[in-house]
Design goal:
Chain lengths: 306, 306
């Protein structure tokens, strides 16, 4: 496989001002892999219970599930959340970890040979354990969340030292470094070891920091956001999926990958769960990539102002 | 003259966590004209009191002040503000309108022949009065603020109907239209008549909406912001000044003007008041324009994803 993701596979219950949807496929590995599957061969390391009936979604997108453990007498991780009109903030209604509580990622030999690895938002010791099983991976990226920053910061920092790309949002970057200015926070985080840092800014877009460069893009302009759940993992799936499709993982590829990530995330929020992304066509994806080019392009100055 | 601005000329007292500066040159017309002066001939319509001693600043930048009225026995407009560590929010400490309280813009015949007009943030009846004295202006832009949206909304909407470009921040766009989603709010505002709308998003950059297109740019990444006072007017000065230097005011010119506006605003916040912008060189301005190109450019997809 070209790309491996370790993370949660869940059943989500989501309430928004526009409706409610119960027990739909969710979790970081689900959103990530469905998004990445449009670009590359992707495979999941995760765990589900005997109640899991969404296998056909993964099959329909040719997503590898040999390392998706099934615990017949257990229940799949469930998460419930509610969004108010301000769709930037998710209010968690319940979290039933179920089989995910004792999740120990197990990688088959085939999985360990994946070229790229994405460590979804799980406990940082587990992330590090997986990373160490794949010392030859060409590029490893990591996501995290406020919970791990608060309770397992030291472990998280150690894990970050061992990856190439960190993908977090602006609040997490500030919280993790204790630095309010985002540019300074980014420099601090990069000094820990990663080659690149992606900061997601929701409706304001995203930025890619490397040791030598800065790249920033707006979000796709949406007149309505229906369900933001999974937007971050869908972004990461587009980003890593596109990179896995490329021979050279240079800055130019990373920048295009940022656009594809944003494209996928912009589709994700248009409907509940993974519904919109699952139905996508490559023509739709490419069209939206070109829309990003149109909305960010400006001409060089024909002659210098003097 | 190529460009005329009507607005305030003031003495500002600003406190930030990094220091305090008393009685420095401020006001929308000052920030605007100093910024615009790097691109074009610009002239001010405004009023000052007998205590005004900053004329040499305008002279040193060749800014026209024939229509800057002097009321010998009056005092110049004074504003005092404080910023906490969150430099996005200004806390007004005092506002002494002084001679500005009875400001009635008076345009000389030469001023009325200006090609472009910027209506700084003053009462919308006054803005409309000036606009109506220049029916042949090629492009008219307007700024406003929450005070006028709250207390003189009907007049403001009438004024907006008569201009080409509205330049406001995201909170103002939402407040003015009553629409939380920025893209919908922009569409509503454009339906009132303007050809273009620029929404300033502070540290997140700015966006240009027209009836046919959308263009968004990040802010220049700054590790420290010293004094944000006047950043919006400095942006507008760079935007309008660059446009005034161009023969064709088409979308391509507007996009480059957005970059020059952002460039000038990014310098403005580096020091107190107008200090940094006054000292700029064209080489510094052009360098930062090229930095914007580097930080937003991405390659087309070499072949389509399929």
């Amino acid at each position: 496989m070209s790309l491996l993701v370790v993370g949660s596979v869940a059943y989500d219950t989501v309430e928004t001002p526009f409706g409610k949807c119960d027990k739909m496929l969710g979790g970081s590995a689900s959103h990530f892999s469905i998004s990445a599957s449009f670009f590359t061969n992707v495979s999941i390391v995760g765990v589900v219970g005997g109640d899991f009936t969404e296998q056909e979604v993964f099959d329909s997108r040719s997503i590898g599930t040999n390392d998706l453990e099934r615990i017949a007498d257990g229940k799949t991780f469930r998460w419930g959340g509610r969004y108010e009109y301000d769709l930037n903030v998710a209010h968690t209604l319940f979290t039933d970890l179920n089989v995910f509580a004792d999740f120990q990622p197990k990688l088959s030999d085939e999985s360990k040979r994946s070229r790229l690895l994405f460590l979804g938002n799980i406990q940082p010791d587990l992330q590090r354990g997986v990373r160490e099983q794949m010392p030859d991976a060409e590029l490893v990226a990591l996501d995290t969340m406020n919970l791990w920053i608060e309770h397992t910061r030291d472990s998280l920092v150690r894990t970050i030292k061992g990856v190439d790309v960190v993908i977090i949002n602006d609040a997490e970057a500030r919280q993790l470094t204790g630095i309010p200015n985002l540019i300074k926070a980014a420099r601090e985080l990069l000094s820990w070891g990663p080659k690149a840092l992606i900061i997601k800014r929701g409706e304001y877009g995203a930025a890619l920091f490397t040791h030598e460069s800065y790249f920033a893009i707006p979000a796709y302009p949406l007149e309505s956001v229906f369900d933001p759940t999974g937007a971050g993992d869908t972004f990461a799936g587009g980003f890593m999926g596109y990179l896995a499709s490329q021979e050279k993982l240079d800055e130019s590829a990373m920048r295009r990958a940022m656009i594809f990530g944003s494209v996928m995330a912009s589709f994700n929020v248009e409907e509940f769960g993974t519904d919109r992304v699952r139905r996508l066509t490559h023509a739709e994806i490419n069209d939206r990539f070109r829309a990003f080019k149109r909305m960010t392009h400006f001409d060089e100055i024909p002659f210098e102002v003097k």
